[in-house]
Design goal:
By secondary structure, the chain is mostly helical. It folds into two domains: 43 residues, no CATH class; 50 residues. Helix content is 48%, strand content 9%. The chain has three helices and two strands, in the order ββααα. The protein has a two-stranded antiparallel ribbon with strand order 1-2. The radius of gyration is 20 Å and the shape is flat. Bound molecules: zinc ion. The site of zinc ion (ZN) has 8 residues, from loops.
Length: 116
């Protein structure tokens, strides 16, 4: 029997389900389905839409700062490579972007359960 890989709607983790007819699960585990349900209930109580997301200020600032660093690195690379470049300059540009994007490893977007 073949399987289908999909992403959990709560945590974003990939998981496999059996292919074929029938309703596919949306969550990688029952506890994530429960957390998603609880989150929807909190959203309803606070009149948030299904596409709205709440972030802590520190989480928002971390993401905003990361995007700013990546954008600045891309602008540097654009000007460094304008008009052509030597292979070593491409390597330096890639390293510059790699360093700017490296802090993505410290940012977690996994949702938190209600009350945690
Ligand atoms: Zn999950």
């Amino acid at each position: 029997m073949s399987s289908v890989v999909q992403r959990c709607r709560w945590c974003g983790a990939r998981f496999e389900t059996a292919a074929g007819a029938g309703r596919r699960p949306l969550y990688c585990r029952r506890s994530h389905r429960q957390r998603a349900y609880e989150s929807r209930q909190v959203a309803l109580r606070h009149q948030l839409g299904p596409e709205d997301v709440l972030l802590t200020r520190s989480g928002f600032e971390a993401i905003r700062d990361l995007l700013f660093r990546i954008e600045a690195a891309l602008q540097d690379i654009d000007s460094d490579l304008a008009g052509g470049a030597e292979p070593d300059e491409y390597r330096q540009a890639l390293w510059h972007l790699y360093e700017a994007a490296g802090s993505v490893r410290t940012i977690s977007l996994e949702p938190r359960a209600v009350g945690s």
